[in-house]
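BUG: 3D viewer hangs when loading the predicted structure for this chain

Environment: internal workstation, default settings.
Expected: structure renders.
Actual: progress bar stalls at 90%.

Input used:
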Amino acid sequence: MSDPLSIVSGSAGLVSLGLTLCKGLAEYISALKGHGEDVRHVEQKLNNLQMFLGIIETTLKDLTRSQGTRPPIDAIKVIETVLDQSKDGMTRLRGYLEECSGDGSSNLLTTRKKAVFYFRKRTLKELEGILDGILALFGPSLTLLSLHLSSSNHQQIVGLVSSLTTQLLDLQASTTSIRDRLLDASKTINTLSERFTAAQEAWQLTSRQVKEMTMALQSLFPKLLSFFVVVLIPLLRGFFLIVSRALQDIPRSILSLSTDNIQFEDMLGRSFSLQFSLVCEWRVFEAFLTTRLENTPGEASVASGRYHLLHGSNNMVLPKSRRGWANSIFPGAKVVMSLQVDDYIPEQCPKCDSKLSRGNIGTVIKCATTGCWTAFEEDRILFSEAHQEYGQSRYSDMARIFTGFRAQDLKPFTRVHFHTLPIVDMGESDIEALMQDHDDIENGGHCQKCLDLAMLKASGFLKPLGKRENEIQSFQGSS
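Structure tokens produced before the viewer hung:
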């Protein structure tokens, strides 16, 4: 099927050609108006043909403009058919126009046309016949085109009417819905108004009742006051006493949050999350330690109290007393446990056998390889002259005697506190005075009391021998 736009272009060209021919022939005929009835008939038919071509031209423009870029193919086909059928007549009209046209001024041309009219009357008859044939083609075709366009317009009108009908129905439905909603809203407003009226009446009634009750209470107030003083106050006191005792009996665990729990790690490296409301009592926490370390390597240490509780952030030793413990911990705190032994810090880690580096007294020594073991140093005081006089072996014997040294397997424990043995300078005269008449071969040449006196002297609890001789003698006499 041909493109409608190309058909329109071709048809427009034929229409333009026809209009040009009609215009030229009309000019020729106008010069012969006064030469009989035949010329007038030809002029009228030329005007009719020019009118038909103008209608076709206008129709083509309207179709292109109203139908967009794709005009209706049926209407265009009708126009194309009639123009094709009239093409032969248009060609013959062109021949007549060329024959009538000539060079020279318009006055000479007019004079020549008038002069030859009587000799070309037969030619006018032929021209009239050609025009009749073309008009005979255009008449039914234009009627068919008009009917087609009317049908197309009718269909468009029907479509528009249908669309408008649908929109009107939708609008009517929307209007009905809005009306129903307005009716519902009106009913709701009426209901609310009725309820408001009922509530207002109820409020007025309640207000009257309150006033009556107020007046009655005013008359009963002295009696109620005396009843309250005599009966209710003792009852309330007993009630609050019972409630306070009941609250004390409620388990504290329901009052604590999981974020308040104490994070505790025992001397064996085991971790526990303990409720703060329970373990803030020292006796409860001590019972927990006894229970958890039962039948473990740390059982004896807990039973004898030879352990430390440390703050998790700074390794500060926490007090093991009821008040001190309660004042030292707080919700969310971390507490770790350390074993307390009378021994020397080993050269290697008891767990992984890694070599330990000894620092100053009071420092924390950790396993540098995996961090699996931690040692803490605690101070013990000895005297340097004994070390100088008796040598390292005798000094070690004296230290063992004083501290009650006993070997212990440290591998199960993660934290251990050791007693360090620093040297404290003492005068030779003090040592000789302390050691006089106290020989004990089993203790390396000195008795245990002499060593204890030396410790008291170094600690500052014992003054020089010459000033407190009686105190020393009484102390020695008790040995």
